[in-house]
Amino acid sequence: MGMLDNKVAIITGATSGIGARTAELFVQEGASVVFTGRRKVEGEAVAARLGAKARFIQADATAEADWQRVISETTKSFGRLDCLFNNAGGPAPTGSITTIPVDGYDAAMALLVRSVMLGMKHAAPIMMRQRSGSIINNGSIAGHLSGYSSSVIYSAAKAAVNHLTRCVAMELGEHNVRVNSVSPGAITTGILAKALGMDSGTADTSAKVAEKIGEVYAKAQPIPRAGIPDDIAQCVLWLASDRSTFVNATDIVVDGGIIGGRNYSAHQEGLKQTKAALGI
User: Fold this and answer.
1) What's phi and psi for 169, nearest 5 deg?
2) Cα 113 to Cα 203: distance, rounded to the nearest angstrom
3) In this structure, what are the phi and psi dihedrals at residue 175, rounded to the nearest 5 degrees?
4) What pLDDT, on the 0 to 100 scale, is given for residue 206?
5) 186 by DSSP, 3-state: which?
6) pLDDT above 70 covers what percent of the chain?
7) pLDDT (tens digit, 9 = 90+) per residue, 173-230?
8) pLDDT tens digits for 14-43?
9) Centroid of chain to Cα 230
10) Which is nearest to 63 in space by CA: 117, 137, 7?
11) Which residue out of 105, 154, 217, 264 is catalytically annotated?
């Protein structure tokens, strides 16, 4: 028995990274998966790899008309919707608040926040009628504390996602529909490289890029490795399944402990330097 046998799921932004791994895991656990993304070639390649239980629909998660089409095609094919993973995302403008371009800000907020709102808006009526369903939104540790993203706009957007999740959970919970978020820490996807200016094709597909990011992230938290997409996908799987039916309005941080506090070794080194400065 799979954890998601006979369930129907929609996953956005699943042509690479966390979304693609989550789609793969959901299929392995028995779900029928409709996944979306803007990149047709990459989406069709993922669908071919995942097999008959996965279907790719090219769609822009920021566009309401595309959401209406995705929801319509999903319910027409399967008659229900059990899980929505609002995963679509990307980098936001970096640099000082004094130099943020307004069009870049608007585009980032549309991708990171509007897409989540639209997904919930159009999935909720189906789940409310069913009196069942699980919505999972992709947040970030950057939404918890400043300084954990290359972009202040990205951080603000993810804080909005985390709080929007709680607000909607309090409404939909009354209809037995759960709404939660997952906040990844330092995960080896291409988003950092894209934020720093690398083209998306190279950032998402280069093994060397993933390796280098992994090396940078490996010492960022107490757990001595970088996070990988599967770390997030496993958490999303649990939230989508019937093993978490009493979990609602919750953000689960999956970060190896990075926002738990200062690393022990670094703290001890600081004490050592303080003692030396004091002549102790």
Assistant:
1) -60, -35
2) 23
3) -110, 15
4) 60
5) coil
6) 94
7) 999 999 999 999 999 886 666 666 667 666 555 667 778 878 888 888 999 999 999 9
8) 999 999 999 999 999 999 999 999 999 999
9) 12
10) 117
11) 154
Q: Which long-range CB contacts under 8 A does 273-276 form with residues at least 24 apart?
A: none
What angle do helix axes 152-172 and 102-109 make, rounded to 10 degrees?
Answer: 30
**Amino acid at the residue 170:** M
Q: What is the pLDDT of residue 212?
A: 80
pLDDT at 217 (0 to 100): 85
Phi, psi (rounded to 5 degrees) for 190? -85, 5
User: Can you give the pLDDT at residue 191?
Assistant: 62
Q: Which of 93, 132, 94 is nearest to 109 (CA)?
A: 93
In contact, 92 and 108? CB cutoff 8 Å: yes
State the pLDDT at residue 187: 92
The sign of the dihedral angle between the CA atoms of 262, 266, 272, 273 is negative
The reply to whether 154 belongs to the active site is: yes
d(CA 17, CA 203): 10
| C-beta of residue 55 within 8 angstroms of C-beta of residue 45 | no
- Residue found under tokens 């990844």: 184
d(CA 233, CA 89): 15
For the chain, what's the residue count?
A: 280
Q: In this predicted model, what pLDDT tens digit does every residue of 258-277 receive, in sequence order?
A: 999 999 999 999 999 999 99
> Contacts from 163-166 at CB under 8 Å and sequence distance 24+?
164/113, 164/116, 164/117, 164/120, 164/137, 165/116, 165/137, 165/139, 165/249, 165/251, 166/249, 166/251
Show the DSSP H helices in the chain as ranges: 17-28, 40-50, 64-78, 102-109, 115-130, 152-172, 191-195, 200-205, 207-217, 229-240, 264-278
**Is the model more confident about 255 or about 192?**
255
